[in-house]
Amino acid sequence: MYVKPFEMERYQSLWENIVEYNLSESGVHPMNLKELVPAEQLEEIFDTSLGYNQTNGTEELRSLIAAMYPGAQTENVLVSTGSAEANFLSTWRLIESGDELALMLPNYMQIWGIAQAFGAEVKPFFLVPKNNRWQIDWDEFEKAVSSRTKLIAVCNPNNPTGAQLRKDEISRICEAAKKANAWILSDEVYRGAERVGGTTPTFWGKYDKVIVSCGLSKAYGLPGLRIGWTLAPAKLIEELWGYHDYTTICPNPLSDRLARIALQLDTRAKIITRARGIVKNNFEILSQWIKDQKGVFDYIPPLAGAITLIKHRLKIKSTDLVIKLRDEKSVLIVPGEQFLMDGFLRIGFGCPADQLTEALNRVSEVIKTIPIK
Question: How many other C-beta atoms can be found within 10 angstroms of the C-beta atom of residue 248?
Fold first, then answer.
């Protein structure tokens, strides 16, 4: 089986720890251990045994996760090594050679690559700019979903646009899935990092063949813990646990313990407030900067997540521009080509505000040297 290179992940892995300013990251600035763990609990953390953890996640952690989703129980939860493993396990279990997958694009390209490696036919439906928001092209959606569709995969809130699906749009997707007898896999890892409004609606509970993947990396600012989860019907969770036995076996016990602290009701509320504060404050910096680059960019403001997808009018390919920024100014940005969106850039704005300001100033210096189309 041949797996296509995951361009964005390899690109970030090569450069994100080398450049001075990383605007390729899609989450909020990471928390440190002192911010997360109350001083009185540190000794308890030091006493954590570093043996094998409960392989599907401790009962307490699964209970805390289930409590965030109406009607969910611990048997509906499998803890994984990040939401990436959660997505992989579900795709591995459900997709076989010859199956059809309807996939929202643009998107984090993990499921796109895995499904093709497994021999599936990936039928995309794109988000398109309309009425100042990114919306599903429903004509494309209707063509992408058929009686042969095995899985419909979405990202909500969306990476890289920061768009949200509305309740009526979620219902429409669920109705199409029910008609096709297809599963829905909803990647909701950015849920909680909303810039405006309340918490993004979840697919959970809207249809009996829904799988939700999520984790602590993006909205929680805890990517280093590598804690993710799958929420699904109990029978499927039992099967996915069996697949999990063949991959990472169990979550890191220290990460499991820290995740239980993070998801306590009061602590979780503080973490989400922190994330939303970063997103709101830093977006003001980014939006003003975009305005100052008169005639260079078009974009639709993101509703959630510390990311936005912007279209440029510069006479240069996005990949070439990003390489120029990296090599000349030590600033890392994701080119739209890595989302099959030539002419666009994904900018992450979750870093500390002073770093964001300096990085954008450096981008401006390069932009001034490139003519507009």
Answer: 16
Residue linked to tokens 């499921």: 111
Looking at the structure, do residues 53 and 146 belong to the same domain, yes or no? Answer: yes
Tell me the pLDDT band of 328, cut-offs 50, 70 and 90. very high
Whether residue 245 is found in the same domain as residue 279:
no
* Mean pLDDT (whole number) for 238-248: 98
Question: What is the per-residue pLDDT for 232?
Answer: 98
Tokens, residue 281: 């404050």
pLDDT at 1: 87
Q: Give me the domain span that covers residue 218.
A: 49-264
Residue 317 in any domain: the answer is yes
- With 0.85 as the threshold, say if the pTM is over it: yes
Euclidean distance between CA atoms 299 and 280, whole angstroms: 17
Count of structural domains, the chain: 2
Report how far residue 277's alpha carbon sits from residue 274's, in angstroms, rounded to the nearest whole number.
5
* Residue 313 belongs to some domain of the structure: yes
191 touches 229 (CB < 8 A):
no
CA atoms within a 13 Å half-sphere pointing along the CA-CB vector of 85: 24
Name the band, by pLDDT with cuts 50, 70 and 90, for residue 272. very high
